[in-house]
Amino acid sequence: MADDADWRRFEQMAMPHLDAAYNLALWLTRNADDAQDVVQEALLRAMRYMGTLRLESARPWLLQVVRHTCYTWLKENRPAEQVLLDDPEDAWRDLAASSSNEPPALAIRKADAQQINDAIAALPVAYREVFVLRELEDLSYGDIARIAEIPIGTVMSRLARARGLMRTALAPNGRPVLRTVARSAQGGVST
Amino acid sequence: MMTTGEAWKIDAFVDGELDLAGQLEIEQRMDHDEALRQRIEAVRALRESVREKADRHVAPAGLQERMTTMLGAARREPAAPAAVAKSSSAGWTQALERWLAWRPLVASTAFVGLLAVTVNVAVLQSSQQDRLMDEAVASHVRSTVGQHLVDVASSDQHTVKPFLSQRLGFSPPVRELQLPGSVFVGGRVDYLGGRPVAALVYRQGEHVVNSFVWPDTAGSDTAPEFALERGFRIAHWAQGGMRHCVISDVNRDEFQRVVDSVRLAAATG
């Protein structure tokens, strides 16, 4: 099934995207050791259906596997992270509606690296992944839709929401971005 | 003013993801809608600020090496992953996709088998690495307590480099370090991991720095990995087709500066 040429091809296509894989895994797990484990496991998974790998889409293909692996990992290790995945699609409208006191672009440009990293890390995971794929991996809406397995319309609304939360977090005296809270802390323990 | 229901259009506009008619429509509205213009400016500011300042994490060299080794092992030993794959033949890919899509928690024997191979490879690799570290420490200690710090005592790179090249069969980068307080003492031929390596010796104040260099077979450059071994600081990395291993007992910050200047010297020498 997998002969030498297949392996070589897989290595040549997948390995150039190791940084992208690690970047996504680290932003989703927010822990460097966990990210390494996730990437390693994702590559093991990827190796086994490398038959579906095409050169022109190697990066989204690999990132899709990494994302799958991340979510499996999050489900097992941090069940609380899943909560906001079911955020109603129109929740971002609340934020969009309060645009009257939009922070000036100047304040956003003045934010330092630490503030920006913290604000991204504080985004609920469903928004964080779309935001990271767009702003740090520079992927198109179409690729993001494929990786996150959501319609393009959902990519758009989640991205708008993610950016809204980021703007609020970076505004002077801005209130902190909504943090994901452990379910148990809210009283209801999920199983 | 844009209604809240179409706020996403602003983001799509900034990302260049609207169709032509949509792009043009927003451009026209921008001219006479100050609130819209400000919102677009805020999205652009965020976009530029994030791209400029946020961390885009780079895979650590250790991970890169492990993955390369893992792939290499899988390729050389088709008995491990491929034989398992064959055993379940055609339905395998579909079964796997189902498994990935729905039932990520169900452990398959293939996965466990492959994981075992990986763990073995990783352990093998780390024990090789450990042995190299041990040897580097031993060599460093020998050089500092014995009489044999250098084979050729010279601060002139044009004396040291040919001396080492003649005895080693490769030509290591030889340069003094652009670092305050650093003195280039000379070089010697040493052995690490069963192969002859170049050892360049520097003094940093009272401390001795040994910088080992040998040809690298893996190829691509890697970022330095730092370790602390029996009180000595060690950094190793691949650069320009050479494997570098620097060891000393200077403090952490000083060691970082030493490693930086060795990398710089290797890049220019």
Structure description:
The complex is a heterodimer of chains A (191) and B (269). Chain A is mainly alpha-helical and 191 residues long. Chain A has helices spanning 4-14, 18-29, 32-48, 58-77, 92-97, 105-110, 113-122, 125-135, 141-148, 152-170, 183-186. Chain A is 65% helix and 0% strand. Chain A is elongated and about 60 Å long. The termini of chain A are far apart. Among the domains of chain B are: 4-53, no CATH class; 148-268, MucB/RseB, C-terminal domain (Phosphorylase Kinase, domain 1), CATH 3.30.200.100. A seven-stranded antiparallel beta sheet of chain B has the order 1-2-3-4-7-6-5, with helices on both faces. The interface between A and B is large, with 68 and 58 residues.
Summarize the SSE layout with pairings.
The complex is a heterodimer of chains A (191) and B (269).
Chain A: H1 4-14, H2 18-29, H3 32-48, H4 58-77, H5 92-97, H6 105-110, H7 113-122, H8 125-135, H9 141-148, H10 152-170, H11 183-186
Chain B: H1 8-14, H2 20-32, H3 34-53, H4 61-76, H5 81-87, H6 91-102, H7 109-145, E1 152-153, H8 157-168, E2 182-192, E3 195-204, E4 207-215, E5 225-229, E6 232-239, E7 242-248, H9 252-268
Antiparallel strand pairs in B: 1-2, 2-3, 3-4, 4-7, 5-6, 6-7
Helix pairs in contact in B: 1-3, 4-7
